[in-house]
Amino acid sequence: MGSPARNPLVLRFADCTLDLQTAELRRNGHRIILQDQPFQILTTLLEKPGQLVTREELIKRLWPSGTFVDFDQSLNKAIARLREALGDSAESPRFVETLPRKGYRWIVPTSNNGTTSGQQSDQEQPNEGTSNARFTVWRLRWLYLLGILVFVAAGMLWKSGWISTSRRRTGSTPIRSVVVLPLQNLLGDPSKEYLVDGITDSLITELARSTPLHVISRTSAMHYKGTNKTLPTIARELNVDSAIEGSVSEAEGSLRINLQLIVAEADSHLWAQAYEGNGRHILALQNQIVGEIAAQLRANGSSEQAMVGIASTAKPGSSHYAKFEDAPKGPESAERIARRAESQDLYLRGLYYSNKTTEEGLKKGISYFQQALSADDQNKLAYVGLAESYSNMADLGFTSVKPYYPLAKDAALKALALDETLAQAHSMLGWITYTYDWNSDRAEREFLHAIELNPNYSVGHALYGEYLARRGRTAESEQQLRTAAQLDPLSPPVVTELFLPYYFSRRYNLAIDVSRRVLEMDPSFEQARDQLIFLYELSGKS
Q1: pLDDT tens for residues 83-96?
Q2: Whether the predicted pLDDT of 108 surpasses 80
Q3: Which one, 318, 354, 389, 455, has the greatest CB density within 10 A?
Q4: Structural domain count, the chain
């Protein structure tokens, strides 16, 4: 008959109530289900109101011995999730105060049964209020003790073999798909955002062509930059079963890249590793990271076994660290090393701007790519960036096709002269060969070779799908374009291409559905709007 506040397992503070049995938080009447780690942090702080709870205490509470995780970053994220649920902030804390380099403190009075800690209710006998408060703390401690016992029991079962290696994560299905979420910029310099985004982009590209996994493309991955969505939600939207997330920071003058592999459905860590290296050799550092991950993924031909192999390389109870040697092997001069570093930095700046696909962004990207090649004319990725930017300038109507397609073709050929395995360059060459040179046979060879080199390259599938649609091979086109949309499900330019096979096969209703779906994703995407108007006129709809 009583209100929630009179339940001894319900605590009240400010505009919130917390149900200790269901982990439900209600803030201003809105119900929020706390995830396990934020709930454990909250209840730990509530056990010691006004007192310091050290980071070490929280780490021991959240992760049993033998967990492979970047504890500092993971704890920071869990604290951030708790603050988000509470409507709190680190800068102006209402509930959780940060004590730098020490830990956290609960700073708001908490009440149970209407009685604030340290006070007595006018409507209750003192002994009754004290008894209820003691009962709440007693139950809280027993809940924690029960949790610890569960962890210990699970650990004993794991060691004894009752829980098999293949089931270290929830469920027994191997990891088959992954999204590399935008890395966090912890460099303390917002102007270095291009560097962090560039590293994210490079990891996506190299993992896509180096592993057997289904890797979500950059456009859809970057959609979640700065998002507050939980990982299980992101995984459902992208239809993936795992994610790589992390950060880029500096440690004693070295660049540090922290990465974690997370099983999406359970939101649990499978592996964590930190890499450190000199920023002058960022490309080699990226190659090292991807090479190690890809080698594990290829092990025994099983992605799940490979991931277990990765986890086994980490030291129990801590993250695994890989120190990248600053001095490259070989006789390169200091001047050559410096020019390569400068070229790579300029390339990443160009990538940052060209990925915006606006006229201004593409022009800035082209300028940076040209500067990168002036610093190092062997920078194959800068040639790829030029080819794609020149083609986009023409395809998006920002300039005449006539001068820019030859420039794009020349850049693609120069990239391939340096590295024949660049799927992006082959795909771009196929597109220009078809639309500008009108050589259909050679174009198809280039498209197929691009897809063979990198089956995860969504743009390659999209361009080949458009080629097939215009050649009247609509069934094959639909297959390629569906693959492209699966790899890049949140990219309006990629998804809208599905319009083509339906249009050419006169299945106008399906073409209309595609255009509508794209406009739901991005109401400002003009291509889909123009297609929809055209289809309505064609089919007689209004």
Answers
A1: 888 888 887 888 99
A2: yes
A3: 389
A4: 4
Residue 218 belongs to some domain of the structure: yes
Average pLDDT over residues 229-237: 87
Single-letter residue type at 135: F
Contact between 200 and 180 under an 8 Å Cβ cutoff? The reply is yes
Which range marks the domain in which residue 402 is found? 333-454
DSSP 3-71: -GGGSTTEEEETTEEEETTTTEEEETTEEEE--HHHHHHHHHHHHSTTSEEEHHHHHHHHS-TT--S-H
Q: Bridge partners of 184?
A: 247
In the block, tokens 């289900």 appear at: 33
Instruction: Tally helices (H) and strands (E) across the chain.
Output: 21, 16
C-beta pairs of 531-540 under 8 Å, 24+ apart in sequence: 531/496, 531/499, 535/503, 535/508, 535/511, 536/512, 538/508, 539/508, 539/509, 539/512
Give the integer Cα–Cα distance in Å for 61 and 144.
9
Statement: residue 437 has pLDDT above 90: no
Report yes or no: 209 and 451 within 8 Å, Cβ to Cβ: no
160, 188, 207 - which closes a domain: 160
What single-letter amino acid sits at 246? G
Looking at residue 369, its pLDDT comes to 92
The Cα–Cα gap between 301 and 183 comes to 28
Beta bridge partners of 376: none
